[in-house]
Amino acid sequence: MKKIIKTIKIDVDKCNGCRACEVICSAFHAAPKYSSTNPARSRIRVIREPLTDIYVPVYAGDYAPAECAGRDQYTIDGKEYEECAFCRASCSSRDEFKEPDSGLPLKCDMCEDDPPQEEPLCVQWCLNDALIYEEREEEVEEVKLGDMEIGLESLVDKYGLQKVIDAVARMSKKE
Amino acid sequence: MRYAETGFNLEVDLTRGNIERVETDPRDTELYLGGLGTNAKILWDRVPPEVEPFSHDNLLIFGAGLLCGTPATGCNRTIVSTISPQTKLMAFSMMGGFWAPELKYAGYDKVILRGKSPDLVYLWINNDKVEIRDASHLKGKGAIETAELVRQELNEPKAQVAAIGLAGENRVYFASIEQGRSSASRAGIGAVMGDKKVKAIAVRGTKDVHVARPAEFFELCTEVLEYIKFREDHPIPGVIPILAVLGSPQEMQIHDEKWHTENFSWGNARLRRKGFWTEEIAKEWHDTLESMRRRLISCYNCPLKCGATIEAPGQSTYMMKCFTKLTYAMGAMSERLEFGLRIAQRATEYGVDGYSAPQVMAFALELLEAGILTDKDFPEMPDDSAHGNEERFYYLLDKIVRREGIGDVLANGTYWAAKEIGNGAEEYAHNNIKKIEQLPLKLGMLNPIFFLMYCTGEKINITQIEGQFPQAPFPKREHREKFVKDWFQVPDDKFKQYFLDWEPRGENSNPYYPTVEMACDIVDWQERMHYIDDALGVCAGLSSFHLKPPYHIHNYPKFISSGAGLDMDEDKLTQATKRYRTLVRAINIRRGMRRKDEKPPDDHWRKRFPELEQELLDTYYKFKGWNNEGIPTKESLYELGLDYVSDDFIQRGILHEENN
Asked: How many beta-carbon pairs under 8 angstroms link A with B?
C-alpha cells in the first residue's frame, strides 16, 4: 500500500527569526480565514534566543496528557538547546501549542484547504527557505493478522479474555 | 468593532503609580490614522509649549503603527514621541524589532507615560495585567542585559523588552531606547525615559488583532511578498549596492563599503578619504565581518536581513543595525572594522545614538587639538593608538554616559556642549540641523531636492525623508528610460519625466534642475511616503526609503481600507497625511521653530546659491500651505480641519486674524 507523507524540512541555519510563519499560520487558521492574527494561536513556533543563536521552528504535533519523565538536553555545535526545543507535543510542561483562551491543544494540519494549498502557508511565507515542503511516497505494509494475534494473546494472558473483550467493545463505541 | 487597531491606550501616571486602560476615539483614527499621527494629536492636546523635556508634564508615547500586528510584511514599528531635550521640539524616533506587534496582541495601541517615578522602575504589560515593578537592581545595567534579566525574572522568554542603558539613566541628550534588534535613537528620547525613571517596558500579548476585509487584505499582503521576491531577483542597476536592494538597508549582509567610506566624511565630519577602499581593506573588513557576524537577523514578520548578531571575542553578543557598523570607526579615524563592531557593542549596552555619539567624541578631540579644551579636561585619557583615536573613543564614551568631568558637558550633544564651552567651540559643532548631529556628508554642488529635505525634514534625519526618487541622475538617457519603464510607484507620470530629463551635466543638472517647482513636488512625495509609513508602522526599508518599493501610494489606501475598515483612497490618504504632518509642524512652531532654524549645515555643500535657496524655500513653504516663516496659514489649517490649531496660533499671536 502506498501513502503520501507530507514533510517540512527545517533548516535552522537559514532561519532569521522573523516569525512570519507564526503570523500567517494564525491568520490562516482564523475563522473566517485571515480575519485575525495572533501568534499565540499559531501551530508553528520559533524557539528563538538571539543572544545564544538559537532559532528552531517547531510544528505542533499530538497532544500529550502528561509531561515526560525525563527531559533531554542537546548540545549541537556548542549551542545548548533547552529541554523541549525540538518537541512537537502540546503538553502540560509548557505553554506552546495551546489556544491562549481555552487552553485546548493545537496541531499542525499542513494547511488543509479546499482547493488544496500548494504548500502550507508557513512555507510559502518563509522567503529565506528555512522551511521547505516535501511530499514523498512511502510503501506502508498492511498489518498482518498473525502479528496482531500475538499481541492480543499477550494481553489476554495478562488481563483475561473478558477484560480484553470489554475494552475492545468500549473502544469501538467511542469510534 | 475596531479593526487593525485595538482601540485602547494604556495611560501610566508614574508619579502616582496609576495605570488606566482608556478607550480611544475612532474618529481620531480616521483623521490621523495611528502611530505618529495620533501621537502628534496627543502631544498637541496635552503638552503645551511651556513644558520642558525633563518635566513631569512631558509625555513619552510609545505608539504602535496602525497596521502593526496584522500580517502586512515589515509592519512592526514603534513610534516613540516626546519633547526632545536636544532640540526642545517634538521628537519622533522609531524602532522596528518585535515590540509594537506584541503591544497590539496585549490589547493596546499605545503606552503613554506621564509624570516621574520616585524610584527606578520597569513596566510589565501582560495582556490585561499591568504592573509597575521595582528596577533598583537593574540600575546601571546595559540595555540588552536588562532585557535579558527582565525576561528571566518574569519567567517569560517571549516578553518583548524595550530598555535604556546607562546613557538613558543619566539623561544623555542622545540616549537611545534599545529593543529586539532595533532602537529608537534620535533626539534623546532615551533621556526622557531615564528622567521618568523607567528602565524598561516589557510586553507580552496573546490576543487577536482583527482586519476588516480578510480576503482582500491577505491578497494585498501576498502581492507585497511576491514583489519583495521579484526585487530580490532584480536589483536596480546603476545605483550603489545598498540602494539596489530593499532593506533598511541590509548593511550587515553587504561587504562593499566603498561608497560610504569614500563619500562620507571621517572624524568630526571633516575628511573625505578618496581611495580608502583598497583591496587590502576590503579583504580585512570582509574577514572581520565574516568572523564576528553570527547570523543575519530580521525584525518581526520581515524576510529582509538588515541586522546581525555580532560576537566579538571577549564581549557579550549584541545585535547590530545598519550604519552604526561604520560611524564609530569613521568618527575615530580608525581603519579597522573590528574596532567599529567592538565599540558598538559597548555603545548599544549603554544605549546611545550611533550617529550622534561618534560625532560628539570626534568634536571633543577637535576641540582638544584646537586648544579650546586642554589635557586637563581629559585626565588620564590614553594617547593616540596606532589606529586613529580608538582608545580615546572608549575613554570618551565612558565619560559621556557616566556624565563624568567633560563627559557631563559632552553628554548634551555638540550644540549645547559648544555653547557651554564657548571660546569659539561653536565653529566645531558644524554638522547640525536644528541642534542634532547629522550624517557626516560634505559635498560639492547644491542639490535642490536635498536642500529642501534638509531644511524642512522635521524628523531631522535625512534617511527619514529621502527615498523613492533617485539620489542622482543616471549618466545615460537609455538607462533612465529603462529605469522608468516599470516605475509604477510614482503618484503621477510627471515624476518619470522629471527623472528622464535630469542630466549629470549641462542645462538640466543641479542646482537649477530639477526646477524649483519640480523639487517641491519630489520632496513632497518623498516626505508623504515616510509619514504614511510612520502612521502605519511600516519599515522605510520596504517602503519610503527605497526606489521601487513594495508599498506605495497606490496600494496603501487598499491596505488601510481592507485592514482598518476606513474608507480610504489616494486623495483621502494624502489629505490625512498632510493633516498630521502639519500637526507635527504646528507643535514645533508653537515651541518656537521658525524659518531661521530650517537650514542645512553651512558646509554641507561647497557650492551654494543663496538666491536659489531662498526661492526654493519660499516656493516650498507656499506649496505646503505655510507662510514665509514656515507657519501653516489659517486657510490651510482650516482646509485640513485643524481649526483648533489656527485658533491656538491666533490666541498666542503666532498668526493674526486677518494677516497670515
From this structure: 92
- Could you read off the pLDDT of B35-89 as tens digits, one per residue? 999 999 999 999 999 999 999 999 999 999 999 999 999 999 999 999 999 999 9
Chain A positions touching B157 (Cβ under 8 A) are 49
Check which CATH number belongs to the domain holding B461 and give it. 1.10.599
CA distance B446 to chain A (A): 41
Optimal mutation site among A13, A15, A16, interface B, most CBs of chain B within 10 A: A16
Is the same domain home to A43 and A95?
yes
Q: Does residue B112 lie within any of the structural domains?
A: yes
Q: Name the residue of chain A whose CA is nearest to B4's CA.
A: A36
Q: What is the CA radius of gyration of chain B?
A: 23
Choose one of B148, B182, B204: the last residue of a domain. B204
Residues B467 and B573: their CA atoms lie apart, in Å, by 19
Answer yes or no: do A166 and A89 share one domain.
Answer: no
Please write the tens of the pLDDT for every residue from B458-494. 999 999 999 999 999 999 999 999 999 999 999 999 9
Contacts of A30 in chain B (CB under 8 A): 208, 214
Beta strand B265-266 with A44-49 is: unpaired
**ipTM score over 0.90, yes or no:** yes
Cα–Cα dist B470/B460, whole Å: 20
In B311-420 the beta strands, taken as DSSP E runs, fall at 318-321
- Measured distance CA(B407)–CA(B393) in Å, rounded: 12
CA distance B452 to B615: 11
| Structural domain that includes position A162 | 145-174
User: Cα(B136)–Cα(B367) distance, rounded to whole angstroms?
Assistant: 37
**Pairwise CB contact (< 8 Å): B303 & A128:** yes
d(CA B66, CA B536): 4
Contact B337, B331 (CB under 8 A): no
Nearest CA in chain B to A103: B206
Chain A residue with minimum CA distance to B68: A37
Listed as ranges, residues in chain B with pLDDT below 50 are 660
Could you give the angle at which helices A145-159 and A161-174 cross, rounded to 10 degrees? Answer: 120
pTM, entire model: 0.95
Q: Are residues A80 and A151 in the same domain?
A: no
Which residues from B are below 8 Å from A when comparing CB atoms? 69-71, 73, 98, 105, 144, 148, 157, 181, 205-211, 214-215, 217-218, 225, 228-229, 232, 294-303, 305, 309, 316-317, 319
